[in-house]
Design brief:
Structural class of chain A: mainly beta
Number of strands of chain A: 12
Distance between the termini of chain B: 37 Å
Oligomer: heterodimer
Order of helices and strands of chain B: EEEEEEEEEEE
Largest sheet of chain A: 6 strands, mixed
Distance between the termini of chain A: 41 Å
Radius of gyration of chain A: 13 Å
Number of helices of chain A: 0
Order of helices and strands of chain A: EEEEEEEEEEEE
Shape of chain A: globular
Largest sheet of chain B: 7 strands, mixed
Strand content of chain B: over 45%
Structural class of chain B: mainly beta
Shape of chain B: globular
Largest interface: A-B, 21 and 21 residues
Chain lengths: ~110, ~110
């Protein structure tokens, strides 16, 4: 079975600094997608960024970027210039045609 | 466009009862997925529907079932409720249930079983 592991239950970052959240996954599939979702305290899950496994180029969305290492099955999220509004639970997710799995989440605290 | 809506937002039920939760996807979205979120187990995939057909199913007992209507609205039903079914149930919709699989989540239904 595919698994998604987020080894950092909690992370903290100073406002305006950069933080990296880690995610590793296990799969035997060649065609899959990886996502980072953000769940603020209000509970509405929001898509942050998406990475297609067949693309070598790392995805970037404004202050959010990923480091996708396919051979290592690693998919980390970098948040640059952290803002107070970035405080949330962040979930790494794996999706293939027949499967959808989430990591346990990393709670990010942003200190002013 | 309106986002994904879920009703009710909060629900309290007693063990042994059954419950039906509803999800209305974003207009034009034809795929709906359901997830159970608990502090202990995290986010777990329940099932996915596309064009009224169940496409994928997670590892949950048969007490959990769902369906999708022709207007893409979806319901999930849990019969013979157990205390362990207390959770936040999230619904997510996507355009076609095919790559790139971008999902948009609703606010969830908080189910408490006593």
């Amino acid at each position: 079975a595919q698994t998604v592991t987020q080894s950092q239950p909690e992370m903290s970052v100073q406002e305006a600094e950069t933080v990296t959240l880690s995610c590793t996954y296990d799969t035997s599939e060649s065609d899959y997608y990886l996502f980072w979702y953000k769940q603020p305290p209000s509970r509405q899950m929001i898509l942050v960024i998406r990475q297609e496994a067949y693309k070598q180029q790392n995805a970037t969305e404004n202050r959010f970027s990923v480091n996708f290492q396919k051979a290592a099955k690693s998919f980390s999220l970098k948040i640059s210039d952290s803002q107070l509004g970035d405080a949330a639970m962040y979930f790494c997710a794996y999706r293939s045609a027949g499967d959808m799995r989430f990591g346990a989440g990393t709670r990010l605290t942003v200190k002013p | 466009k309106a986002g994904v809506t879920q009703t009710p937002r909060y629900l309290i039920k007693t063990r042994g009862q059954q419950v039906t939760l509803s999800c209305s996807p974003i207009s034009g979205h034809r795929s709906v997925s359901w997830y159970q979120q608990t502090p202990g187990q995290g986010l777990q995939f329940l099932f996915e529907y596309f064009s009224e057909t169940q496409r994928n199913k997670g590892n949950f007992p048969g007490r959990f079932s769902g369906r999708q209507f022709s207007n893409s609205r979806s319901e999930m039903n849990v019969s013979t409720l157990e205390l362990g079914d207390s959770a936040l149930y999230l619904c997510a919709s996507s355009l076609a249930g095919s790559p790139p699989y971008e999902q948009y989540f609703g606010p969830g239904t908080r189910l408490t079983v006593t």
